[in-house]
Amino acid sequence: MTSEEERMALLAGRPLDALDEDEREQMMSWTRLLADEATWVEPAPDLEDLVAASIAGAPKPSTHWATTSRTTGSWVRPLLVGLAAAAAIVAAVFLISRRDSDGPERFAGGELAGTELAPGATGQVAIFEDSAGFRVQLKASDLPPLDGGRFYQAWLRGPQGSIPIGTFSEGNGDWVTLWSGASPVDYPTLSVTIEAPDGNQESSGQRVLVGETST
Amino acid sequence: MLDPDLIEAFRRREDIGVRAVYHEYGRLVYAVSLRALGQKHLAEDATQQTFVQAWQAADRFQSDRDLAPWLTTIARRVAIDIHRRESRRATTSLEEVPATDPAVVTLPPGLEQWYEAWQVRQAIDALAPEERDVVRLQHLDGLTHTEIAEQLGIPAGTVKSRSHRAHQRLAVALSALREGPEP
User: What is the Cα–Cα distance from A148 to A167, expressed in whole angstroms?
Assistant: First the structure.
């Protein structure tokens, strides 16, 4: 039998004492995932057919309305025309009012929930796309006050990793503005951590808020 | 990696393209959904919904980009939605629910390692079958090179070289993961 440490060294490709603490922690995490039955599980063979059946039963976005109009009665067409005209008027009014207020359209948004470090905290996020990138408006409420120069740092996370999007000092319900050069489509998870003024650019891992954004 | 022609077929929502995407990523979506949701029938539901949503949005996928990150974003949101749906179903009356009840938790507990589990499974799926067998026996069953050689009926030297090659590939694939604690 091989020990966990031997398997970690196999994955690292070198002796464990040659790894720093972070590398060792990462190797342990991967090794434990590799030793977990759930990582290796295979779906039932008929799942492919179930997926195909689900797709066959789902509405196809581009042809759905055309199919519907062919099968409806003669009274429906004038109703649809009327509804379409009303929708066009509402859309025009909306667009004009938006132009008047000079406000960009919201690109993505979501709600954040407090973690064990700040169970009562909540957050709202609204993300707008403009020529400089993505403006992230964050409203964090009921975050604990910080001392010793510590501050809050917001991050976007996705399959490719994490990117810092800005810092702030209080989470008392005021909106703060942060910036991201990467799209929230690629980095959909927003989190907030507590950081110390120690010059370390990596996350402390002390998450106080986390949530998903969606477009 | 999928053939570009199959990616285009997927974007046109053709059956051959959708099935090719399932063959490439179906096991991955299922495995990570099962880790997040903890029950097979929910993981199967999540896999179906993920592919339905991917199929519906296929024409918006940019074919010059990698399909895996796009798909994991969809799969993760589906898993969260299913977890919330199941949490609501388990609740009888809001007044009776204690603050610590899983029903009030908004994210599934298995979601914490979503991206890491996704990358590890993707790295495993990218290995050649004979390399994957060796890695599985080493890590999941904890066997030594000699024990694996006996089980597979091949020389120990072959096991050693396959293991070395497989771990090199795994290390390269996994190095894409960010080091340090998760923000």
Answer: 15
Give this complex's ipTM.
Answer: 0.81
User: CA A211 to CA A110: how far, in whole Å?
Assistant: 7
How many Å apart are CA B117 and CA B93, to the nearest integer?
35
Query: What is the least distance, in Å, from the CA of A205 to any CA of chain B?
Result: 5
Q: Give the C-alpha separation, A51 to A49, whole Å.
A: 5
- Give the distance, in angstroms, between the CA of residue B50 and the centroid of all CA atoms in the same chain: 12
Q: A39 is written with which tokens?
A: 């990582």
pLDDT in tens, B32-82: 999 889 899 999 999 999 999 999 999 989 888 888 889 988 999 899 889
The SS3 of residue B85 is helix
Q: Whole-prediction pTM value?
A: 0.58
Q: What are phi and psi of B10, to 5 degrees?
A: -65, -45
Question: What is the chain A residue with the closest CA to B141?
Answer: A35
Nearest to A54 among B23, B48, B106 (CB): B48
> Distance between CA B170 and CA B180 in Å, rounded?
18
